[in-house]
Write a structure and sequence with these properties.
Blueprint lengths: L1 H5 L2 H34 L2 H21 L1
Helix pairs in contact: 2-3
Amino acid sequence: MKELLLKRGNKFIQYLFATFMFIVEHFARMGVFALILGALEKKDLGYYKFVVVITILFIYILLLTS
């Protein structure tokens, strides 16, 4: 780890990014799921449309990064 940090700074940053990518994706999935459940609970058509757009964008981003 020390070698990565001192000699290969760019590789260390890439390692950190790859490590946290899965954590960020997990929290994003939880957030989208909470939005969907919240939209069903609120029963507001405008909010439901907003959640549908956010969900489609999230799926699109997941497909781009795969």
